[in-house]
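Q: Please design a sequence for this.
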């Protein structure tokens, strides 16, 4: 009995340390006494019967294009999982691929899997740098941006947060960054995102664990208040990393 985590296309979309997002979910579940498995899904693989979380990382445009045909085959099942509460974590190019469509620099339009109600426009200026984001509830999220996508289909209610320093979904100051609604989380931040931001990781883990509980794969609601020496240690490293990044880019905040 475990939380089942699927990692889509890690060989094609696995740059910038995004593999750490699947590992973060699994290890944080295990630290609370709940087993978790990670299944890697390649271009020619079939989706399993069940999943509680689906994670996809980033890669160059050529890699995104390479996975779209496989995603066309998988898309109906992925959308059904979304509607049933499976947690999705999508980063960078993987977010593009799980969105509704991708518009390329030459005007060509590629269909995405339609899991996220967002659309990407590729081919603009590459936006690279350390980024600090404030979520609507005040939580500070940090990471490293490296993308040329402009994201559409996001509003105040569905953005992950507002950029305090760095780069977001748009080519404007104070733009929104990422997408967050219920069991859908997307971002252009690397780090990896969930290892550097444990509270965001635990929020995603909660959704995955609740889905696992609802289908009878685990017995009880996960206790996110349960702490171990390992969690204290790794969360301490993450806190130090966030504070160092915030100091480097010159953002003044009381809490990170």
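A: Design:
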């Amino acid at each position: 009995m475990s939380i089942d985590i699927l990692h889509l296309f890690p060989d094609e979309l696995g740059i910038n340390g995004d593999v750490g997002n699947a590992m973060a979910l699994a290890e944080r579940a295990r630290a609370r006494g709940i087993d978790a498995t990670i299944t890697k899904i390649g271009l020619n693989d079939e989706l399993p019967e069940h999943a509680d979380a689906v994670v996809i990382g980033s890669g160059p445009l050529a890699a995104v294009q390479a996975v779209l045909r496989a995603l066309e085959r998988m898309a109906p099942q992925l959308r059904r999982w979304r509607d049933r509460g499976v947690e999705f974590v999508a980063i960078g190019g993987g977010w593009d691929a799980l969105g509704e469509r991708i518009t390329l620099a030459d005007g060509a339009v590629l269909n995405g899997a339609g899991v996220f109600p967002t659309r990407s426009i590729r081919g603009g200026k590459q936006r690279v740098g350390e980024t600090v984001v404030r979520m609507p509830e005040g939580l500070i999220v940090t990471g490293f941006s490296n993308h040329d996508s402009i994201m559409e289909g996001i509003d105040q209610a569905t953005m992950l947060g507002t950029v305090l320093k760095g780069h977001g979904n748009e080519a404007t100051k104070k733009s929104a960054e990422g997408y967050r609604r219920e069991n859908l989380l997307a971002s252009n931040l690397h780090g990896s995102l969930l290892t550097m931001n444990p509270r965001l990781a635990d929020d995603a883990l909660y959704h995955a664990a609740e889905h696992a509980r609802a289908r009878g794969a685990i017995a009880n609601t996960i206790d996110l208040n349960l702490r171990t020496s390992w969690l204290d240690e790794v969360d301490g490293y993450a806190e130090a990393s966030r504070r160092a990044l915030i100091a480097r880019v010159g953002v003044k905040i009381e809490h990170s």
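Q: Thanks. Anything notable?
A: Helices lie at 19-31, 61-83, 93-98, 193-196, 198-214, 229-249. Residues 174 and 254 are 19 Å apart (CA to CA).
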